[in-house]
Design a protein that fits this description.
This protein has two helices and three strands, in the order E-E-H-E-H. The chain is an alpha+beta fold and 95 residues long. It has a three-stranded mixed β-sheet with strand order 1-3-2, covered by helices on one side. Strand 2, helix 1 and strand 3 form a beta-alpha-beta unit. The model has no long low-confidence stretch (mean pLDDT 93).
């Protein structure tokens, strides 16, 4: 699934938990910029982990357009991708 800021690749697994990874190319910027956006994404997903369906592997690929994105824009992009992938548990509402 694609969004202007992120790409989400996901796959169903036989595991009981949900595993999450990030991919950021060096074209994005220096190590400080790459680590900053990874920290932001980790926090966004930590806050939503209880609402996610279990048994999936998720990989978020950061696009270079995300370089100047705010925390709120990243939050919106993550929620949009998770919603489109139907990765939220039934009955959980998006805040």
């Amino acid at each position: 699934m694609r969004h202007p800021l992120l790409v989400l690749i996901y796959r169903r697994t036989n595991r009981a938990e949900c595993r999450i990874g990030f991919s950021i190319t060096k074209k994005f910027g220096n190590a400080v910029q790459r680590n900053r956006i990874k920290r932001q994404l980790r926090e966004l997903l930590r806050l939503q982990l209880q609402q996610l369906k279990q048994g999936y592997d998720l990989i978020f690929v950061v696009r270079k357009e995300a370089r100047g994105a705010s925390y709120q824009e990243l939050d919106s992009a993550v929620r949009n991708l998770l919603k489109r992938g139907k990765l939220f548990r039934q009955g959980d509402t998006l805040l």
